[in-house]
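The data layer described in this paper is built around a simple, fixed record for each protein. Because each token names a local backbone shape, the row as a whole describes the fold. We quote a single record here, exactly as it is kept in our systems:

***
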Amino acid sequence: MSGEGQQAQIKGDRDGVLILHRTLARSSFYPLLFCSVVSLCVLAVRFYISKSHAYGFLIWNLFLAWIPFGCAIWVAMLDKVWPATRWILIAPSCMWLLFFPNAPYIVTDFIHLQRIEPLAMWFDISLLMLFAWTGCFLGVSSLAMMQSVVRRRIGRVWSWIFVVMTLGLSGVGIYMGRFLRFNSWDLLLRPGHLLGNVVDALANPMAHQRAIGVSMLFSLFMLVCYVTFLGARRRSV
């Protein structure tokens, strides 16, 4: 490779790294990384003091909460590099939507709250709050990135329709994950069983009042979190 070619490649690599850094900075990646590290450190302290691995499932749930954030970063990067191409965003966008409910899902882990000696319950409450906050923050941050892409592609009004529909689906996803014990990948592995439950709920809404109520409440909760997040971010700019 010639000297000019090497310089062009180095410049391209630097530009790519710079774009990635700016995207990460705007998406709150570094604060989210800090929140995740603090959460894991507190959990490690709990492991050490209690000599047990209670609440170890939080590690897996936090990992799942990071997947939609990573997918949103992927979409944002592709949108910047190939702004005129739409089809290239389909796969990462579908993956983001599939895993998005995993981010706010951590809030439901409060159902596991119990007093386990020798720690006081306030310790476990604080632990769950750290993970729940990080999960919700990951969710709203990824949603903000996706809304920005949708707004640039098809307009502001459609971007808010996209937000409302996404939060509605996430409420359904959280209910199905907590009460029916479905996972995100069951849409691919057991689509008939999963979609059958959804169709049955739509066809017989009065027989599924808890499902509808829980789904709506979690959708509303995430909408409040998202609007608050956007308001705080705009005031800080």
Summary: The radius of gyration is 20 Å.
